[in-house]
Design a protein that fits this description.
The protein is mainly alpha-helical. It has 13 helices and five strands. It has a three-stranded parallel beta sheet. The protein has a two-stranded parallel sheet with strand order 4-5. The structure holds iron/sulfur cluster.
Length: 331
């Protein structure tokens, strides 16, 4: 049976944190046998905001190592760096020419990022969703795994694919989204999205002592002021983390013990740390091994890029002919 194709990307921001791991990577690993998966380290997306040129290359490699350490298997799926397949930017230009400016100006993420990066509201920031659409349709992907905050982008991708098909003939499937039902882990303040730029994150490769220190001081249910006050796990970010790292039995027990004040927040955090490290330690070990054997990572990325270019070259040939920019001799 032919598997449906999935495309998804992750930015090489220098650190892959618990939000990325729980919100995307665990899901990618689970999907890679069921679907024909293409996973990309989207470096062109990452340069739409200020970044450190010197460390960028290492950030890209670090992302690749981390993905492989988490269980992304380059023999099962295709793992590659976006800029290694230039057809992504070529297709972006063509899609730009059929995308109304107003559609991009309305994107919530553009408005948010324009606020966050007031000194650098560049064209790439505005055009980001078109590059994302090109990433997806270049491989004629059927499915895109996303969190709720990306739904608007997938809707735009569907509109762009539809517009292209209507104007130039049936070419791209309209991709559908696969919504992740994983509970969303917030930053250490318990309020904002976990992100490197907000410095409210726990990196999955951080030393255990640092992870514990961050967990120890992170915000819980703020209404629980004293040890004997009952808490409400539903509004506690640490309980959300338990849902991703602890066993069902532990989750049920903590839910009860928190509500009855049988357990204090520090004990609860210790339990979480123990369960979290049981899952993260093998990943950290694998990442350390991969760091010592860079050829394994370079080899996987080169193979992924080769496989993706084969698809991208074919699709772009079709696109160029359809939009009328490939002049062919009449038969
Ligand atoms: Fe949160 Fe655990 Fe404290 Fe309850 S006991 S408020 S779940 S940290």
């Amino acid at each position: 049976m032919v598997k449906e194709r999935i495309f998804s990307g992750i930015q090489p921001t220098g650190v892959i944190h618990l939000g990325n791991y729980v919100g995307a990577l665990k899901n990618w690993v689970a999907l890679q046998d069921e679907y024909d998966c293409i996973f990309s380290i989207v470096d062109y997306h990452a340069i739409t905001i200020e970044y450190d040129v010197e460390s960028f290359r290492e950030s890209i490699l670090n992302a690749a190592r981390t993905l492989m350490a988490c269980g992304i298997n380059p023999d099962t799926c295709r793992l590659f760096i976006q800029s290694a397949v230039p057809e992504h930017t070529e297709l972006t230009w063509i899609l730009n020419c059929i995308t109304p400016l107003g559609d991009l100006e309305r994107m919530t993420q553009f408005k948010d990022k324009s606020q966050q990066h007031r000194g650098n509201i560049n064209v790439g920031l505005l055009d980001y969703p078109v590059l994302q659409a090109a990433d997806i349709v270049l491989y004629k992907s059927h499915v895109v795994p996303v969190g709720e905050d990306q739904l608007q982008h997938i809707e735009l991708t569907r509109r762009i694919a539809r517009r292209f098909n209507n104007r130039f003939g049936d070419t791209f499937p309209e991709p559908r989204y696969l919504l992740s039902h994983t509970p969303k882990i917030m930053g250490l303040d318990g309020k904002t999205k976990m992100s490197k730029s907000l410095n409210n994150y726990i990196g999955i490769l951080e030393p255990p002592d640092d992870i514990w220190e961050k967990l120890r001081t992170s915000v819980t249910d703020e209404n629980r002021k004293r040890r004997n006050d009952p808490g409400n796990p539903e509004i506690c970010n640490l309980f959300t983390m338990h849902k991703s790292f602890s066993s069902q039995d532990d989750i049920i027990t903590i839910n009860r013990q928190c509500r009855t004040a049988e357990i204090g927040c520090i004990e609860c955090k210790k339990k979480l740390f123990e369960n979290m490290m049981r899952e993260l330690e093998p990943i950290q070990q694998k990442a350390a091994e991969l760091k010592k054997t860079p050829d394994v990572v370079y080899g996987a990325l080169a193979k992924g890029a080769r496989q993706c270019r084969e698809i991208a070259t074919r699709v772009m040939e079709e696109v160029r002919v359809k939009v009328g920019i490939r002049v062919q001799r009449d038969a």
